[in-house]
Amino acid sequence: xxxxxxxxxxxxxxxxxxxxxxxxxxxxxxxxxxxxxxxxxxxxxxxxxxxxxxxxxxxxxxxxxxxxxxxxxxxxxxxxxxxxxxxxxxxxxxxxxxxxxxxxxxxxxxxxxxxxxxxxxxxxxxxxxxxxxxxxxxxxxxxxxxxxxxxxxxxxxxxxxxxxxxxxxxxxxxxxxxxxxxxxxxxxxxxxxxxxxxxxxxxxxxxxxxxxxxxxxxxxxxxxxxxxxxxxxxxxxxxxxxxxxxxxxxxxxxxxxxxxxxxxxxxxxxxxxxxxxxxxxxxxxxxxxxxxxxxxxxxxxxxxxxxxxxxxxxxxxxxxxxxxxxxxxxxxxxxxxxxxxxxxxxxxxxxxxxxxxxxxxxxxxxxxxxxxxxxxxxxxxxxxxxxxxxxxxxxxxxxxxxxxxxxxxxxxxxxxxxxxxxxxxxxxxxxxxxxxxxxxxxxxxxxxxxxxxxxxxxxxxxxxxxxxxxxxxxxxxxxxxxxxxxxxxxxxxxxxxxxxxxxxxxxxxxxxxxxxxxxx
Length: 520
Hints:
Elements: H1 9-25, E1 29-33, E2 40-45, H2 49-68, H3 70-87, H4 89-100, H5 104-129, E3 132-134, E4 143-151, E5 154-158, H6 166-177, E6 181-185, H7 191-204, E7 211-213, H8 218-225, E8 231-235, H9 238-249, E9 255-258, E10 263-267, H10 273-285, E11 295-301, H11 305-316, H12 338-350, E12 354-357, E13 371-374, H13 381-384, E14 391-397, H14 400-408, E15 416-419, H15 424-428, E16 437-438, E17 459-460, H16 465-470, E18 473-481, H17 496-510
Parallel strand pairs: 5-6, 5-8, 6-7, 8-9, 10-11, 10-15, 11-14, 13-14, 15-16
Antiparallel strand pairs: 1-2, 3-4, 4-18, 9-17, 12-13
Region (Disordered): 1-32
InterPro entries: Ald_DH/histidinol_DH, Ald_DH_C, Ald_DH_N, Aldehyde_DH_dom, Aldehyde_DH_NAD(P)
Keywords: Oxidoreductase
């Protein structure tokens, strides 16, 4: 066996000095920048792995109190938090505006939806998760059967930057209402929003670390995903979602993933063209197109295609990106997305698409102006990949069957919309997605009782609604014997007579009518 000589004392000293120097040189903070100007909005700590682990342990210690106060106690706390946010909605909207660049009014809209979800989760948790009696069936009639949904413990939430209040709140509020404590890691682009949310909660609950904040870059998110939390809720790209799953798998930690989409809007020949064009433009351009459930593809029946294009082109002439009060949407929050948007537009035009609004020159250093391209090949990246910018591909289809086929021909499956009269609802039910709206866009996100999530590359698991509450729990089934069974089935003392009787009862309950079988 080979041996290694111990390191000389002088070498050990040099190594310690080098490690100390490297540690001293490593940054301990990061800046949040305005995407509109590049100015520093705030400076936040780079939470280390050790600090993440400590936060999780503090949260775990707080779970006892948070669960002991019960559904009613948690409802009271969440409603008081909801009141704080509501009274200061414009203050929070300013933080969202500063870090994302979105207009103040759009920020307030996002916050308003989140407030409504907090109220719904707080008000419905007891009814949907509390203990209830269920039927025990004929075979087990001597048993009283109950089911309840218990909190997992500590939930790690890794939030996005595009809707830094509404989206993570779909996990935070529902996890808290279910009885979990939460460690929240906001996007490195919107740490100030995360700080505001946690601070406002701590005004209501100051004695227990029920909701905590950790800030930082990807390393902090990885530390949270691989920590000893009991579940991870992540919103972001499919690529990062896979990394989160890989990190969580080390501890066999379950995850809920929302990973974007390539949603389409279908326009039938009997649709209200003006309403459809207005909705498509808003769903594609609002928040600079940085919306996971926003529209990126539009399939229009060939009979009304020209009318639709004329309508949406006219409406788009009044929409502009900028940082001034008259602008309809703001900058691209994440600079790395700009070359992707430009590549998609350039490829679509190079391959025969017609830019009826905007085009390659619409992509600037911080802002992207509205771009609508028609006649784009279905294998173009502008059709197959998530663009996440203020662009729309509008293609003509000969039938609604073809519109559905093209809509479903994607690895994603998050959301969608259908505009029409006679067949709109029927078409909507044929779409492979977690959510679809008819004659409106993204309406499902504002309905707290509906689950939110996708399939395929769009992820799995659900937030919002009953499914969202149960996502952060485990079911606990209990049977209590009310009287001795007629047949002692779970005993080695079971007799042949009881075996025969069991089969007779089973046949009577489930055997059905015997079929006549004739020899051929």
